[in-house]
Amino acid sequence: MTVTLGEVVAALEGRYAPALAEDWDAVGLVCGDPDEPVRRVLFAVDPVGAVVDEVVETGADLLVTHHPLLLTPVHGVPADDPKGRLVHRLIRAGAGLFVAHTNADRAPATGVNDALAGVLGLIDPRPVLPAASDPRVGLGRVGRLAEPMSLRGFAERVAAALPVTAGGVRAAGDPDRRVATVAVCGGSGGSLLPAAAAAGADVLLTSDLKHHPVSEALEVPGPALVDVAHFASEWPWLPVAADLLARDLGNRVEVAVSTRRTDPWTAHVAQPGTGGSAGRLSG
Amino acid sequence: MTVTLGEVVAALEGRYAPALAEDWDAVGLVCGDPDEPVRRVLFAVDPVGAVVDEVVETGADLLVTHHPLLLTPVHGVPADDPKGRLVHRLIRAGAGLFVAHTNADRAPATGVNDALAGVLGLIDPRPVLPAASDPRVGLGRVGRLAEPMSLRGFAERVAAALPVTAGGVRAAGDPDRRVATVAVCGGSGGSLLPAAAAAGADVLLTSDLKHHPVSEALEVPGPALVDVAHFASEWPWLPVAADLLARDLGNRVEVAVSTRRTDPWTAHVAQPGTGGSAGRLSG
Amino acid sequence: MTVTLGEVVAALEGRYAPALAEDWDAVGLVCGDPDEPVRRVLFAVDPVGAVVDEVVETGADLLVTHHPLLLTPVHGVPADDPKGRLVHRLIRAGAGLFVAHTNADRAPATGVNDALAGVLGLIDPRPVLPAASDPRVGLGRVGRLAEPMSLRGFAERVAAALPVTAGGVRAAGDPDRRVATVAVCGGSGGSLLPAAAAAGADVLLTSDLKHHPVSEALEVPGPALVDVAHFASEWPWLPVAADLLARDLGNRVEVAVSTRRTDPWTAHVAQPGTGGSAGRLSG
Amino acid sequence: MTVTLGEVVAALEGRYAPALAEDWDAVGLVCGDPDEPVRRVLFAVDPVGAVVDEVVETGADLLVTHHPLLLTPVHGVPADDPKGRLVHRLIRAGAGLFVAHTNADRAPATGVNDALAGVLGLIDPRPVLPAASDPRVGLGRVGRLAEPMSLRGFAERVAAALPVTAGGVRAAGDPDRRVATVAVCGGSGGSLLPAAAAAGADVLLTSDLKHHPVSEALEVPGPALVDVAHFASEWPWLPVAADLLARDLGNRVEVAVSTRRTDPWTAHVAQPGTGGSAGRLSG
Amino acid sequence: MTVTLGEVVAALEGRYAPALAEDWDAVGLVCGDPDEPVRRVLFAVDPVGAVVDEVVETGADLLVTHHPLLLTPVHGVPADDPKGRLVHRLIRAGAGLFVAHTNADRAPATGVNDALAGVLGLIDPRPVLPAASDPRVGLGRVGRLAEPMSLRGFAERVAAALPVTAGGVRAAGDPDRRVATVAVCGGSGGSLLPAAAAAGADVLLTSDLKHHPVSEALEVPGPALVDVAHFASEWPWLPVAADLLARDLGNRVEVAVSTRRTDPWTAHVAQPGTGGSAGRLSG
Amino acid sequence: MTVTLGEVVAALEGRYAPALAEDWDAVGLVCGDPDEPVRRVLFAVDPVGAVVDEVVETGADLLVTHHPLLLTPVHGVPADDPKGRLVHRLIRAGAGLFVAHTNADRAPATGVNDALAGVLGLIDPRPVLPAASDPRVGLGRVGRLAEPMSLRGFAERVAAALPVTAGGVRAAGDPDRRVATVAVCGGSGGSLLPAAAAAGADVLLTSDLKHHPVSEALEVPGPALVDVAHFASEWPWLPVAADLLARDLGNRVEVAVSTRRTDPWTAHVAQPGTGGSAGRLSG
């Protein structure tokens, strides 16, 4: 009845095939012995110290994260390196680490982007950049809202649906613009803007947007933009993947979603519309 | 008594030498005839449509921007391309465009980073990455606050000192952390973090910070991070450069700072600390 | 009844599809507004000052040239750069610039190489380097003369058929050699020599031939070579393209071929067969 | 009293040090055995079949050429390759081949460019691109004419001074322009134009000039251009190098300059200023 | 009745098509004139001085070697270079040099690897890395032994079957391991290990094996390794190719296999299992 | 009195500075926590399974190897990868792994090459490739024998002085050649041959020598070659480094040299000088 780490890995890779990952990505097992048993699996966005604390505190045998620990490959994992220290802590605690990153982004039906589309209520979501070989696979999702709304109203819906983060939600474009078709991309998805435009999106929601592409986007017709915390955009996948793993293994493993908020932003100060040295600027 | 565009360019390059620009940058005159007269100069962060409207409306003969119009080089400037259209509008209006970008960032005393350090009240600012040839030249500035304060307090000072933008100010790190030495870098300056740490900074203020470097920074000792709008971080330079040009040319040209807020973010929705599907997350 | 620049561009691209251009090339609209009307179009080989003078003098709304103005891409078009100055002059004169370069070389039936083959009287011309997808498309043309003639006689025919240039026509190979099959390539076509040999050509006519490839060619069996001015080899296309555009647009635009000889060579001194310090050389 | 090939090579390299050659060049001994005796040395511009005929006919033991035989390196020298055949013929005839190319171009006092400057009567010639380490070394030569003359007059002097070739001499620029300072570069020297301009040259004489650089040069102030046969521009060096070798070896070897004209152009047809399909063009 | 070198080359290339060679290889005729007659052909592994001595002593008109003389291409073949000296000696002796290298390795049925498989008695040999286009073509051969034997026993069979060399035969892996399926690759074939493992080989025999790949191979399940002299692994091909050529040309040429052992190792000292400073090491 | 891993690393890097390593190398701490205590250190050439067995069996806290475990960087260390498994075993056993590779090769006085020179009795050894900055540092060592001897005699001395390996010792060159000056390079040092020749060496001893460079070396004057097992050439450093570490730390750590022979070759079959299919070859 015991489940081995090898079986858990097989179940996860059955849903999030490594072959779906981008060439530059680093997915799969980072540490852990496939022959050893797994009783409890913890799901988190980021493999950081606070999450490994939780692995140790809760006695999890496996940590599944969306972000790779060692995206830049290493010649060693010494404990005086922050990432090496996590490897030591996990191995000594008998816990493995498994990463599903761009393969989870691109996977059909149960991936990161489907989960994000789901909490926002998008109807008939399909990939923004569908794979040539399978139209259900690909980066981003684009779908319809049940009811069109203003860009401002959409930003408010996003703020209510996603995990709370210090930075909240930003929008670029006319706040009164009507939004009916929505493209989303968990993580840093600014490069999907041309494809989202081609797919007829009124808005693209993603994270880590920088000044220049957003500024250039507003100079031409095309989708508005909504920026949320990277962490918040990917979090909705955690309960989906956790429940799926439990089900796929006949509930022979216990699953949990991490309770640590690993968005790094801890404080926000709003700037009211008047005062300050920019007071002389018009909108 | 008339000033030619050539003289204005010479005055600007006397303060912001093209040789200071990074290899990949594109600074200097984008359009305009150095032999023609200049009576009025407008300074702005971004060469976008709203700013060219202002050039036309105010009859300026020269637009000086911090950001390049044609950072990616082009084989033509046809008017059905958004950037080509601006070139047509400027040439037909008899106005030139001059860019001072990383040369203005790295210039001594009167550059973008000195202006930013100035509005924040930094004492004895010096480059974070000083040039080997001249220690007054380089990217970023690091200096002391007159009085140490908390990270939260510093973020509030930043919000008060910089132009108002929709996104406001974000901070990463313990909000109660004491901040005495401050590093700043106008624009996208996340790559200066190691140098800011080496310079003893308690915090690095810059813009366009993305999830992964901030998350990794919080896993090791080092500076806290403050993120502001890219536009806001560079705006303080505009009045400095405008006044300097007028003075350098004996007030024979009229100068003005653009009144258009070219930060592309138009709306922000805060997420209060409770409610939402992330309500079960602990901080 | 007015024709817009956009319609003219569409007509030209209907004959000379941009997709036919080489990867390194820079074709299409360089300046001008597709929404503005066009009454008169001037065709020339080179976008140089003398030709832009003619645009201004004749009130043309569009200049079509074979050679790109900005083959090396630029970060600006300031008027103290010779090419930027032409952009200023054209935009201020309300004239556009359109380039059809290697797409015009490779296009079927009405391209640069067909025009060159036509003035030389070649029969059944076909591409020297045909495209895999369409045998009518490709670089160079090879065809038969109505009557075989000597290489010297062919060079005389070339001199009579092409625009007069200071440098005249040069031939390499036995002047008495019989020439029946002729390959031509407008512009710098020396690299087509192996393909011309494979196509059974007795001679390759092109321009800009340099010492080493010609010297090496004479060491092995294969075609003789004839070198003409680059300008002269491409000029025959101008009336062809001009007439075609007028016809394609139902004579709603007026067309003209530039009268300026833009071959840069202005003088030639022949060396008679005796005298000089090389008098002791035998042939 | 016998001289070995090794001694001849040492004498030649004493004047034309291999270290002066460009990185991409291929100079030195191509075939021949340094231990064998040399009685007679033939100098030529090009290692072609006609010159090897002369080696065989005259019983020369060594051929010295300016141009490399194997600039593109080879995996073999089979006799069914034109260059391999020359290697077989030379080795079977007991003759070596030695190349002095860009080292002879750049060498001080007795190199290719000094010889060219000499036959044109230039006063105080110095390198156009002097080496940092030695101002007497470098590509090209620039000097004064004893009397200024028109560009046309200079072209006539060139035609009289250099070996007769079919193509003669071409000039670009105003034929009446006054020429006092002259830059020359044997071989393909068009890339020296900016340096010639910086050196104050009124004209640059070189060979293998192509349309685009000449056309662009005429659009800006700067030197006129004169184009001669590549062969003719380098030939003047042959008697200089031959005499020098004989002297350096105490006349223990017999030297001769090849009598074969290896310029590949065999015929030229002038185009008188009227007639032909370009009759309607104005100058 | 005379056979030309061209006919011999055609016969050899009929068996060992140049198109089969790797991209980086240098095969075919290195020197010799295809129009000259060939009476006697010598086959050897290496084009070295001792073998050229044999060419001269035996009056051979053609040397066929497996290894290229000029794998690194050259700008000349002067006689003071060891390889250039061989070219001079061959050309002066009227002898050609022909190379069949990776094309002979990859050729079907009569190539280097088939000959090696043959002397070892492998049954049903097929390529280890078969070409996509033809399964009989490719690097390496894998086949069965008539009777399984121990790794030690296999090494003894190899020692008996291949030419005697000073270094003998080395094996890596448990000497008592059972060997039934054998992969072989003449020359430096260590990179075929993964393909040999995939083909089910119990052992890979090749040469030039280095410490690190062998050490890593022993850390995982997979084939044992046997290392022989590079020369010995390729020698078995010589009599095969020689006989084949004679037959293909109707015995109109005389063929011979070189009697020179060109393995460079001249002495070997065994280390008995005890004594020396490593005496304290356990196995 | 306890020594931490950090102190041990500092002592090792004091002797074998990481800055001495080649750019492509991967030296330093691979796993282990610098804050934890170290009582016992084991030194070995290779980080392989048998050596980790010994770490576990002997309770060592640190393994120091010459060869890197992760020369090719990795994205993870899962236990189903042979190298990842060793990381798991070491971390779980509380043992670190430290690598000193090309820094130990190049270090002065107490490095790999000095140890090798020492066991062979070389007098006044100095680097074959000395560093520009410090003539005591560099790859290889060259020194004199107390008494000249034959190449065969030298090979016998090598066999007696180095650890016993299955492959023994091979020599290339005339066995009776006199050897007085000896160059050595632990590991794969064939590329040092030109430098060893320039240093006047009569022989170069190293490992992993391949056919082509040895064959080419025998075609020109220069050093003979001796090839030993890679493992054997580096082993002499182990006791040197172990003793030095104990001394540098005041004998506060226990040191040991691994007793496992990690040379991968397990058997050798000599080929007597007659018989076999190569019997017809002459030497």
Automatic annotation (TrEMBL), chains A, B, C, D, E, F:
- Give the superkingdom in one word: Bacteria
A GO cellular component annotated for this chain's UniProt record is: cytoplasm
Q: Which InterPro entries match?
A: DUF34/NIF3, DUF34/NIF3_sf
Residues annotated to bind a divalent metal cation: H66, H67, D105, H230, E234
The record's Gene3D superfamilies line, in alphabetical order, gives: NIF3 (NGG1p interacting factor 3)-like
| Keyword field | Metal-binding
Give any GO molecular function from the UniProt entry: metal ion binding
Q: Which family does it belong to?
A: Belongs to the GTP cyclohydrolase I type 2/NIF3 family.
Quaternary form? Homohexamer.
Q: What is this protein called?
A: GTP cyclohydrolase 1 type 2 homolog
Which organism is this protein's natural source? Geodermatophilus ruber
Source species taxonomy: Bacteria, Bacillati, Actinomycetota, Actinomycetes, Geodermatophilales
